Each structure stands twice: as C-alpha cells, then as structure tokens.
Amino acid sequence: xxxxxxxxxxxxxxxxxxxxxxxxxxxxxxxxxxxxxxxxxxxxxxxxxxxxxxxxxxxxxxxxxxxxxxxxxxxxxxxxxxxxxxxxxxxxxxxxxxxxxxxxxxxxxxxxxxxxxxxxxxxxxxxxxxxxxxxxxxxxxxxxxxxxxxxxxxxxxxxxxxxxxxxxxxxxxxxxxxxxxxxxxxxxxxxxxxxxxxxxxxxxxxxxxxxxxxxxxxxxxxxxxxxxxxxxxxxxxxxxxxxxxxxxxxxxxxxxxxxxxxxxxxxxxxxxxxxxxxxxxxxxxxxxxxxxxxxxxxxxxxxxxxxxxxxxxxxxxxxxxxxxxxxxxxxxxxxxxxxxxxxxxxxxxxxxxxxxxxxxxxxxxxxxxxxxxxxxxxxxxxxxxxxxxxxxxxxxxxxxxxxxxxxxxxxxxxxxxxxxxxxxxxxxxxxxxxxxxxxxxxxxxxxxxxxxxxxxxxxxxxxxxxxxxxxxxxxxxxxxxxxxxxx
Length: 487
What we know:
Aspartate Aminotransferase, domain 2, globular, Arc Repressor Mutant, subunit A, Aspartate Aminotransferase, domain 1, seven-stranded mixed β-sheet, three-stranded antiparallel β-sheet, 487 residues, alpha/beta
C-alpha cells in the first residue's frame, strides 16, 4: 500500500551536540507530542539518511538506541514502527502549567456536555439515533452520484472550487427560492436566503445572531435538546411555554411576555418536536401578531415539511401576514439522509448578512460541489420525484407502526395519528412504573424526559419509524414489549 505522506524531520532547531543526539531527541519529542503516533511506520534508515543528508549508520545507531529505550520497535521484513506501548514519562512543571491553562475554558453547560458524551459513547440509545430520521437506504445514489460528477466537472472547468459566497452558491439559493415560492407560498428575495450545513447549524447561527441582552429565549415545554443547548451556549436563559393538542399555548406565552423581556421564540409548528402535533392556523396568526407587537424573533424550525400525509400542509409561519420577524429554517437532510448536510435559512436581509458573517468565521463557505449537485436535482425534478416516492413509503410505515402498537399492546397504549413526519408520540402510562421506565434505553424509543420534561412522571415515548422496514418496526415494538415486561 502506498503511504499517503512521507514523514519528514527537521533537526536544525533541535537540542543535541551531535547529529546522532539531535535525531534521537527529535524522534523522541515528536512521539511525545503525538506527531508520531503508536504503530506508525518510521522511514527506513536509508530513506531517512537521504532526507536529512547524513550518514546511514548515524540513523541506524539512533534507531537502535530508541529501540533500547522502548520508543521504537523493529519488525523483520516490515520495517521500524513507533512502539504501541511507550515508556512512562514524567510531566514537567512547565507542561503541567500548560495543561492547567488548556483546561481553563468556558463551560459548555450540562446539556451540551451530555449530548457530546452521548455522541462519543456510540451507545445505541443515544439521543437522536432514530428519533424520526429518514431511511438512508432509500437514497437515489446513482442519480446523486451522476449529479455530483457533473457538479465536480463544472466546478473544475469554471475554476469555481476556490472560496465563494458564505451564503452558499447562487445556483442552490435560486433553486431554494423557486421551491419556497411554489411549494410553501414564501416569497423572498435571493439576498434573504442563506445555506447552512443542516438545520442544526441554522439553529446555532440564529442563536449567535440573536442578542441575549435583549431578553430570554422561549422554547416549547417539550423541545429539541440540541436547540436548547445552542441557545444556552450563546448566553440565553431558556423559558418554557406550555403545549397542548393544538401546539404552542398562546395564553401561556402571553403570561411569559408579561413576566419577561423576550428576545426570541424557537418553535416547530408544522410537526411539533417531539409530540408531532400541528399548530393550528388560529394560533399561528396570534403568535405572529404577538411577535410584531412585542418585537421578538420567531425561529421556525420546519425540519420535515415535505412529509405530510393527511392533507396539504399548513403554510409555514414565514409565508403568513406579519411574518417580518420570522427566521425560517429548513433542511434537505431529511429528504435524503442526515449525512448529507444541507439546510437553509430565510429571514430579512440584515439578519442573513449577520448570519453569513458568523458562517465566515466558522465555515467560510459550504461544500460548493454538493450545493451544485443538489441545485441540479431540485431544478430537474429529481428531488420532487424522490419526495413523492418516499412520502408514500413513510406513510405506509406510519400506518403499519400504528397497527403493530395496537396488535401488541391493545388499549394499553394511546396516541393521535400524526398527520406527517417520521415518528409517533405514544402514551404508555398504563404500562410503566418508575422501575421499568429506566430500562427503556433503545435507539428507536425516546422517553419524554429527554425533551425537557421536569417534575412529572414521564409517560410518553417518541417512536421513530421512518428509518425502519416493516420487519424492523415489528422487531422494535416487540423489544419494547419485552422491556416493559410484557410477554
């Protein structure tokens, strides 16, 4: 196998009275710093001697000394490698001080730290593992790969692989503009659209642009945990607003407005996360009126608008009268796969310019090849074709999941059939107690406590069916039955 890069050393600034000593000290230092990692292959003595312009015997002597000390290990017919088990090293007082300084960072906050540890753990029950994600096996990879190839060729020929607009490629923003106009009744100028790496980045950018000095951020009583973590990390105090079967409780929001100065409100009105309820038109209009009169922003997370089954989707907040303060966030990741990191923000031009400035600091710009490929697929109708195909399949999986819950649990569970989305909010209060609720650790079931439920007994779960076949749905619901001690 070819080595991707040649390991190079620099001896002129290294301590040591002789070339031999300098080489020994340099290799030791690079191993200690982690530049040369355990198991890494070291250049052969001949190659190293040619690179440094020194005698090969000097290199061989240095390698032998480092082998004796335990830093290197030689393997017959293979070469010389950094030892997997390195000698014990004492940390100097100076380095200890450096470690102390490195640890003096701003606290990430409890929720963000918990989410990060869950991601690193790789445990199946990690939040978001399957809370209503699409089935990546359905991605039209041949169509997508052809679009990527054409986008790459176009980028090379037009010499457009350099740095570009932090708001995203013009081609994708134009495609999003046409989609919003035709599908969602949202009429915006091109300068009011900015692409991001998925809705999560859009939420974080919004939390960066909004000012915590102007008031608290309001989240629904049960909400998307990474959104809460984003706002808290940017200095916001989070205040919760009640929800019911019609979505955000406007009367409770009016109480909050009377008690707090509010800078913004984060909401998922189309399919409320996690309960899946759809905010009524009456409440949408009242919310927009309150936003205008009390001068607070609304962050509308429209994360799965495309997957609505029962009727035409209710138009988003951004399309309605008095929507000047709405920051509309959408995602193309739910259409294809979470790993395809593409989303967008729509707001007034001043806000989008501020968002682009924040993007300039952390991302510079997105992946222009991916954006060009998606723009082509949107304009050619391939995205719409894929949505129509998967919408039917996800609706079938929703209906099958409902049948399976009723078959396995009967009247012991209850739920409202979601009008869209890829998850069901299931009431299991007749099946649980404090003892077995703790056992519900499974990638397909998320208990109420994960979404902000405090002070009350958790009696609901969110079951994600989108990424599962009918066989997998049956298996998951059977596993839930076992976890709840039902045989």
